[in-house]
Amino acid sequence: MNFLTPNVTNIQNPEELQANQRGEITDAQNSRLNASVGFQNGCGVLVVALFLIPFFCSFSFVFSEVFSSWPVGLLIVGVILLLIVALILRSAGILDIWNRWNALKRDRENRAIRQVQGQLAFEKGKYVVQSAGQTLLLPASNNACGLTPGATYQFYYLEESGFVLSADELFPASPSQARNSLLEILASANKFSMEDLQLNSTGEMTSAQRMRALPQMLMGLLFGVVPLGFGLVILLNTSRQSDDLAATLIPLIFLAVFGLVGGYLFLNSMLDMMATSPLVTEGAGHKEKRTSGGKHRRTIYYYVVEGVSFQVSQAAYQALVDGERYRVYALPRTKRLLTIEPL
């Protein structure tokens, strides 16, 4: 199995490995470290906060006029600013970013490059390195950085911050070991058991798997049956005069559209709950994320196997290794992913 694709960070570069063995950090590694620590994003939030401070301070004049006292106005604005800055720092994780950056700075100054044997692991929705109970951080947690699950590596990392710089493969994993290790990671991220996978491979589904269509069925009920009910109420309460019918025609059309869409979702979900065999899709797979625009941005994560998209959680999205061949078992109509296995 090839776990290195064009879009994956490679930490097995021979030149970088030799530099780390000499106690040096390359420019490329420094760039990855800066991106990994999230300091640039943290700075962006701090810059926004600094721009907000003068904006809110301008309201001190208004408060001072209202309360006829500059000290009172400044005190109120100061309290508001402290609350806003505290919320920004907490939501953006600025304090954690700052601590990691300081640890990284000390590691760079001290050239604190250490080495240890370990293996790739997947914890809390991201790839990490496990070694004798110690967890090390990869420069790109959304992929395996070209590392093979099940293989043992000699890792070069920074002592205090725990960031991995490079890796040298010591004991390669056999194809079956790599496949089984990746399967365990995918099972954990997608919350299914080996028994579920075994049952799906025989063309059957569990009752719990069929129930995964229930949320979409309820959504179809909400956006389909309810609007149709409102439409019937409008029709029953509308007189037979043509003017009244014309006035209610547009809302009835909208309700009918919602009813058709909701009915489609409801019917598909109900048929999935009655299905006995899963949909099987096999082929090369990769992951995609699609962000909707607008004021309230939302990111949806997908596995794409042989051109078919399956919506997954963010943790499951992180676990998939691009470019490998997979077999996916899903609900036939709603395409709810049930189980997945690497081939």
What is the count of structural domains? 4
Q: Which structural class fits the helix and strand makeup?
A: alpha+beta
Strand order of the largest sheet: 3-2-1-4-5
Provide the gyration radius in Å.
28 Å
Shape designation:
flat
User: What is the second-level CATH architecture of the largest domain?
Assistant: Beta Barrel
| Mean model confidence by pLDDT | 77
**What is the highest CATH level, the class of the largest domain?**
Mainly Beta
Termini gap? 9 Å
Kindly state the percentage of residues in helix: 40-55%
Concise synopsis of the structure shown:
The chain has helices at 14-21, 27-37, 39-57, 59-67, 70-92, 94-110, 175-190, 194-201, 207-210, 214-236, 242-274, 314-319, and strands spanning 113-123, 126-131, 134-137, 152-158, 164-171, 279-292, 298-305, 308-312, 325-330, 337-342. The chain has 343 residues and is an alpha+beta fold. The strands form 2 sheets. It has a 5-stranded antiparallel β-sheet with strand order 3-2-1-4-5. It has a 5-stranded antiparallel β-sheet with strand order 8-7-6-9-10.
